[in-house]
Amino acid sequence: MIKYLLNKMLISMQKKYDYDVTYMQDILSADLSAFFKYLKFQSMAGYRGGLPAAPLYAARLRAILWDDCGPCTQLLVNMALEAGVPANQVSAIVNKDLAALPDELAQIVEFTDLVLDHNPGADDIRPHIRAMWGEQGLIAIAFSISSCRVYPALKYTLGYGKACSRVVVNEQTLTPSDKNRSVTG
């Protein structure tokens, strides 16, 4: 019965976001204990640390793009829009158009890319992140970056990974490319 109810929850998510939940259904079907571990992970992934939606999704989107998971990127785009992040900011985050973003979001986009590249230039931005959002905000950004990397790795490992080809933001089609991953420093 519990598997039935959890599967209904997954189907609801699939309908709401037009997102393929087969990998989660397969985990649920194969190992209920593993599925519960997956759900526990979701609480870390959802930690906000008092941050507004835009900085969280800036980190999440850049992290998911780094690992090139098309359906996951689209899911996060849809969730960002649902959370109230303006479409022009979502597009600028995906395209790494720093000039089109408010400074605090541009810093998070750049910081995220530097962190993912293991570039010491992130050390120069971290104090600004702390000054804007505090230690809790930095932790929320760290959790956002870290957790978003799990989903593509999990999906690719289980055979469900898809390369990112296009992302739709309010009927505008974007094609992320390697140039959007480049970092400076």
UniProtKB/TrEMBL annotation:
Family annotation (InterPro entries): AhpD-like
Stored SUPFAM superfamilies: AhpD-like (SSF69118)
UniProt protein name: Carboxymuconolactone decarboxylase-like domain-containing protein
Species this chain originates from: Pseudoalteromonas rubra
